Amino acid sequence: MSYDTLTDFLEPINKHVISNDMGYSEKQIGKSIEIYEEGLPDLEEADIVFVGCKDQRGSGNFSESTAADAIRSEFYKLYHWHNDIKLADIGNVRTGKSISDTYAALKMVLQELMDAGKMVVVLGGSHDLTMAQYQAFADKKLLIDAAGIDAQIDINMDSPLRSDKFLLEILTSEPNYMNHYNHIGFQSYMVHPRMLETMDKLRFDCFRVGVVKENISEMEPVLRHSHMLSFDIAAIAHAFAPANSLTPNGLNGEEACTLMQYAGMSTHMSTIGIYGFQPEKDQYELTAKQISHMLWYLMDGRSRSKKEARTDERQYFNEYHTAFAEVETIFLQSKKTGRWWMQLPDKQIIACSYKDYLLASNNEIPERWLRAQERP
């Protein structure tokens, strides 16, 4: 499939409607972003490609979502600080006759752009659209690490809604291409204890929202290793995202932006989805503004990632040899960004944090090292 045939799956957008006929000034994102209006834009130079998806039938809502355009309206107003990051917006995926048709169309679009080395961001729709993100990798038999950010863990098989149980489908499908899954920001009182037991048996890691808020920098190595991210706005406290009517608690606005910045810094990250936003529940467009700020920080992270060296370019790293529990290992610290990596016994290098290095230096085994060793 060439870029030209992408239009079979897409609907163009109208920048005049999005800007409310106001237009954009020289440095605003709306002025420089390449947009699918009358014809598909040249995507060759694009670093990040945005695509909307209006299907929210998986959450029981049969009306088409206007979330993508509501986010665009706020995002395009922001100022473009990162001259090394080129943006494109290819409009919205056509909603299929069935939700499976929408999954298939979104998957095709994602695959084509990911194959071209683009980071693709899906805006709008219900959380089960994550299925299409996963299938874009699974169809190609690519083993991946993935992360989800959500107040809940969507493995509730008792629910009739696909958006409440899609995660179990992904994590237990055969053949399975999920090497590792990290769930960030769950709220304990909204998660059945047996769900956590199930995740632990699968050797997947779950981080309670309180743990994330106490030391958010520990989430950077988690996201650095991820190939895909699915972000449900239910993870953001109502005060910062009024359209989240699920819970008053959760991440604040700045924390949500920081996590997106970490996602942008990952050189592995190919696809990100931001789901669950219903503009009709929003107040003063604050949730749309919040998501637009998250996208700005994603750009900032992507810009930073371009400055990072590969771990085999050792001249750009400080190298520390240490031993803990009679295991000798190497820690690497980037001279460019200050980020950390550690070597496993099989010589594999994995992302870690300064905290992991301090633990190892005190002859303690870092939990991140242990969890990596437990996985097949």
From TrEMBL:
Pfam (any one): Arginase
UniProt keyword list: Hydrolase, Metal-binding
SUPFAM superfamilies: Arginase/deacetylase
Protein name according to UniProt: Arginase family protein
GO BP: any one term: putrescine biosynthetic process from arginine, via agmatine
Gene3D superfamilies: Ureohydrolase domain
Translocase among keywords: no
GO molecular function annotation: agmatinase activity; metal ion binding
Family from the record: Belongs to the arginase family.
InterPro entries given in the database record: Ureohydrolase, Ureohydrolase_dom_sf
